[in-house]
Amino acid sequence: MFRSSALAALLLTTASLASPLVAQAPAPTLAGTRLDILATGEVSRVPDIARINAGVVTQAQTATAAIAQNAEQMASVRAALRSAGIADRDIQTSSLNLNPEFRYEDNRPPVLTGYRASNDLTVRFRDIRNAGKILDALVAKGANQINGPTLALDKPEEAMNEARVAALKSARDRAQLYATELGKRVGRIVSISETGSAVPVPMPMLARAEVGGRFNTQIDPGEQAVSVSLAVSFELE
Predict the structure, then answer these.
(1) Are residues 54 and 144 in the same domain?
(2) Where does the pLDDT of residue 232 fall: very low under 50, low under 70, confident under 90, or very high at 90 and above?
(3) Looking at the domain assignment, is residue 145 inside a domain?
(4) Model confidence pLDDT, tens digit, residues 84-114
(5) Residue 180: exposed, middle, or buried by beta-carbon count in 10 A (0-12, 13-18, 19+)?
(6) CB 3.0–4.6 Å: which of 103, 141, 162, 174 could bond 80 by disulfide?
(7) What span, in angstroms and rounded, lies between the C-alpha atoms of 237 and 231?
(8) Residue 35, strand partner residues
(9) Long-range contact list for 99-107, CB < 8 A, 24+ apart?
(10) At what angle do helices 131-140 and 63-83 cross, to 10 degrees?
């Protein structure tokens, strides 16, 4: 009898260790009516950072000549960027390529005509108002391939926090509307969750105006909308 009792106690202890109890918070009990609201808050900001791809493409009879010419022009491009106050941390090599060039004719094997070298930089501008002048300087110094710019917010978190506050206020205002129509009042928030956010990066419109026989590039930053969506549940009492 003693052995059986001891064995049963051991098995019970082992089972308890193998399957620990997990405490779960009880679901909140509602005394009133639950109201679920989906609300979005949106704020607008002027972009404060621009990114472009600026590169140099050169062609020559030999690979060595193509690379040498490319390196020389790219050195001038980098010098122009640094003269414009662009920090080294805002300049990054994005691609470097060397490819043979062929001439193709019907029913004949391709003929090697030379080599094409390309070198692209991703450049980040923090002074958008002067970005157009910088682009013109790059072209003048040998950059013959430019893509962009794309405009963005460098630190969007502050704008997103304002959008969160706006979304919560919108949810409260809408809950108050329902409560008033139902003859109730808005009580506590039962649950709240962030369901989505958006920080778009649109392409700006580039306007070019000829002044004194040369072109000056103008970049218009405009505004960008930052939005946050919330799902909020209220108790109407």
Answers:
(1) yes
(2) very high
(3) yes
(4) 888 899 999 999 999 999 999 888 899 999 9
(5) exposed
(6) 141
(7) 20
(8) 234
(9) 100/63, 101/59
(10) 150
Each residue of 34-87: pLDDT tens digit?
999 999 999 999 888 888 889 999 999 999 999 999 999 999 999 999 888 888
Query: Considering only CA atoms, which of 105, 104, 96 is closest in space to residue 58?
Result: 96
> What distance in Å separates the CA atoms of residue 45 and residue 225, rounded to the nearest whole number?
7
Structure tokens at 134: 């910088």
Instruction: Kindly report the average pLDDT of the chain as a whole number.
Output: 82
pLDDT value at position 132? Answer: 78
| CATH label of the domain that carries residue 182 | 3.30.110.170
Do 112 and 175 fall within a single domain? no
Which of these, 140, 3, 33, lies nearest to 79 by C-alpha position?
Answer: 140
| pLDDT exceeds 80 at position 173 | yes
Report how far apart the first and last C-alpha atoms of the chain are (Å, whole number): 61
Report the number of distinct structural domains present in the chain.
2
Q: Which of 109, 134, 152 represents a domain boundary (last residue)?
A: 152
> Does 178 lie in the same domain as 166?
yes
Amino acid at 131: A
Q: In angstroms, rounded to a whole number, what is the distance separating the alpha carbons of residues 117 and 60?
A: 9
Nearest to 192 by CA among 168, 211, 213: 168
**Contact, 221 vs 128, CB < 8 A?**
yes
Structure tokens at 102: 């062929």
Residue 15 inside a domain? The answer is: no
Domain match, 134 and 58 both:
yes
